[in-house]
Amino acid sequence: MFRTSLVRSAHSAACRVVRRSTPIARPAVASSFSKFAPAVVFRSYSAAAGLGKEEVTDLTKLSPTSHFANDLGLDSLDTVEVVMAIEEEFSIEIPDKEADNIHSVEKAVAYILAQPDAH
């Protein structure tokens, strides 16, 4: 009995010593991070701002229903470049099967709007 009470008192004394913590010097930088506002994410562009006026030949041909090949005179390579530009601009990936169905400005806009991850 004396032995168990001695062990208990020694254990509780040791726990009291361990529970007391010595102050630790903390760097001033760590406390200043909590003062800043949360990060704000914004989108920036590094590409040129589209086509210039001298590159567009006839604005009357351009409408939402303009067909890339029939109305605007784009060949298959130009159409692929348009699809690639859409993928890059809106951070989406267009599968080849669906890219083959994008033949007009209207279809391109509809496809982009249907993508939930388009930015």
From TrEMBL:
Location relative to the cell: Mitochondrion
UniProt-recorded name of the protein: Acyl carrier protein
InterPro entries: ACP, ACP-like_sf, PP-bd_ACP, Ppantetheine_attach_site
Gene3D superfamilies: ACP-like
Pathways involved: Lipid metabolism; fatty acid biosynthesis
Keywords: Electron transport, Fatty acid biosynthesis, Fatty acid metabolism, Lipid biosynthesis, Lipid metabolism, Mitochondrion, Phosphopantetheine, Phosphoprotein, Transit peptide, Transport
Species whose genome carries this gene: Cudoniella acicularis
Function: Carrier of the growing fatty acid chain in fatty acid biosynthesis.
Protein family according to the UniProt entry: Belongs to the acyl carrier protein (ACP) family.
This protein's GO CC annotations: mitochondrial [2Fe-2S] assembly complex
Pfam families: PP-binding
Domain Carrier, residue spans: 38-116
Listed GO MF terms: acyl binding; acyl carrier activity
Record has Transport as a keyword: yes
